[in-house]
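Q: Joint fold for the lines below.
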Amino acid sequence: MLANFTVTEEQRRAIPVIGDPEPDVLLRLDLFYAAVGVAIEERSGLLISRTLEISDEGIGRVLFTTRRLVVLSKTLRDAHRFGFNTLGKCAKTGTKLVKDAIKSIEAYPDVARA
Amino acid sequence: MLANFTVTEEQRRAIPVIGDPEPDVLLRLDLFYAAVGVAIEERSGLLISRTLEISDEGIGRVLFTTRRLVVLSKTLRDAHRFGFNTLGKCAKTGTKLVKDAIKSIEAYPDVARA
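A: Joint structure:
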């Protein structure tokens, strides 16, 4: 299961970027950002909404909001090729996103509870 | 063109809500909210990002953000049946959304420019 999150450079280069992203890649991308959302909720104690928009070209945006605050906004490119070289990289990326989100909640505590 | 935005009660009832929403309905929904976004930009002078997420069941969310502020958030239900009884209703709904957005920008001017 976790092994599915790792994609080597060679595997990545082999994925065509024209056409709809593969459903299993989108599922992994969705799961990754769902996990980020849950971690932000646990750390902040706030209810986080997530909105994910991806075009057929693999370009999109994932937004985490709570009340009036944009907690985290991430532009997605190459959704076709979503994955991490190693699981360590996956964990590190997730942790950084959660930290950034917590920072913005701490910067605008009243907006996050508006 | 504009006539496409009106859907009578009878027409609405005739649309099945199971299965993917029709592409032309989604295009109209997209156009409507794009127009709302442009109007918010014109009124506020700020750059507005729009994220639209709709599931196959016609349920979703449209989010308008600028910097750290959620300017407008709208839950979508029955996207399959998107449309207004009259053009007047369409204009009124759009105007109300723009007003709500402007109000939240005025309430959190620093977050909208963070």
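Q: Anything notable?
A: Residues 2-112 of chain A form a domain with the Putative cytoplasmic protein fold (CATH 1.10.3100.20). Chain A has one domain: 2-112.
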